[in-house]
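Order emerges. One example.
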Amino acid sequence: MNPLNPLKKSKLLTAAAAFLALTGGLAAAAPAGAADCPSGEFCAWEHADYKGQRANWSGDDGWWESFIADADSSWANHGISGPGIKDHVKVFSSAGQGGHMTLCLTPGQEVNYNGAANDDGDSHTWSMSC
């Protein structure tokens, strides 16, 4: 077995380092979304850019808690997708999924602010589509 000469070894190490720098390394995690929302959940925050108190749900809620009702300013849908799974989230302006729909989030969608939906959510439901 012939050991690599120092020049070939240096080139090999340089190439390997460049590859790892470009790919971020083999053990790098997938990039996370901007919103800190647990997997499988829909989240709403009091303030834009996912700031302030957060409420999160894995199912429907017909009457949001007082701190987030009519005080929602950013949202994230980190629900689970798959065949036959309700993975879209519809936000409504009144309790019991009443009033008008203020926002509908597709799977994985994060909305850091929406002026038309700001401070208008009172309930939500998971659905098959928007």
